[in-house]
Write a structure and sequence with these properties.
Layout lengths: L38 E6 L3 H4 L4 H8 L3 H29 L2 E7 L14 H7 L21 E5 L10 H7 L4 E7 L1 H14 L3 E10 L3 H14 L2 E3 L1 H14 L1
Parallel strand pairs: 1-2, 1-4, 2-3, 4-5, 5-6
Helix pairs in contact: 2-3, 3-8, 6-7
């Protein structure tokens, strides 16, 4: 006679020790075991056609009647994202963090490699790989040693060699900055989580189209995909990590 199946117990008590894909996660100790040399800073769509006030991406937002959203994003870039990245990037590069430019652009003359929903925008912007439109913005630069991947959709991993490039260098931790927080940034973070990376969202280095959108994205991402931190937090972690080497 078959014995009734024993009820399953609670989840393992040490389950939280792997939260956020950290090797040894401890609540309240966000940067435990952080090593700049195993870290990438992924800059999502910080390229000319996406952030230029007179560029096609901002124009497309305004064309929908969302002038407030366009103004909010541009204001956040000027007041938060660009100043913080100007402070962070030189120190990150010196500490051994690999900077990655994840750029929405096409390698095909007709934009055939771009996902259908985004193809008209990319083609209208002339955002082809090698063009000025698809180049990193001056505020972040493109330094020797940076990596660059061309993405055909929203996320930085889908259809790119980013995962391969990071694993080849032994990178297991990612910091994210860029636009738009509710779209390309969010989908990059989601994919990175499922690939097993330990992740941090630099909240004041990202921008959405409203306070509510930004807050919603941070809440969703911070649930388990990535820890939500500030530039000041990251700079302190870089300093501590560099001294520990």
């Amino acid at each position: 006679m078959n014995q009734p199946a024993k009820p399953r117990g609670a989840l393992p008590p040490d389950l939280s020790s792997r939260w956020y894909n950290a090797r040894n996660y401890v609540p309240g100790d966000q940067w435990r075991d952080f090593d700049p040399r195993r870290t990438a800073l992924v800059l999502v769509d910080l390229i000319n056609w996406q952030t230029d006030p007179d560029g096609p991406s901002i124009a497309s937002i305004r064309a929908t009647g969302n002038d407030a959203g366009a103004d909010y994003l541009l204001g956040r870039c000027d007041a938060l994202i660009f100043p913080h990245l100007r402070a962070l990037l030189p120190r990150a590069r010196r500490a051994g963090v690999r900077v990655v430019h994840a750029r929405l652009a096409s390698r095909h003359p007709d934009g055939a490699d771009i996902v259908p929903a985004l193809r008209p925008y990319v083609c209208e912007a002339g955002a082809f790989d090698g063009s000025a439109a698809a180049a990193p913005i001056a505020e972040v630069g493109d330094e020797p040693g940076d990596l660059s991947v061309v993405k055909s959709g929203s996320g930085a991993f889908g259809g790119t060699e980013l995962d391969f490039l990071l694993r080849r260098e032994g990178i297991d931790t990612i910091l994210y900055a860029g636009v738009v927080t509710t779209a390309c940034v969010l989908l990059s973070v989601a994919a990175g989580f499922d690939l097993g990376y330990r992740q941090y969202l630099l909240a004041d280095c990202t921008g959405a189209l409203s306070d509510r959108d930004q807050e919603d994205a941070e809440r969703l991402i911070g649930t388990y995909l990535a820890e939500v931190v500030s530039t000041a937090d990251a700079l302190a972690a870089l300093e501590a990590g560099s001294h520990a080497l």
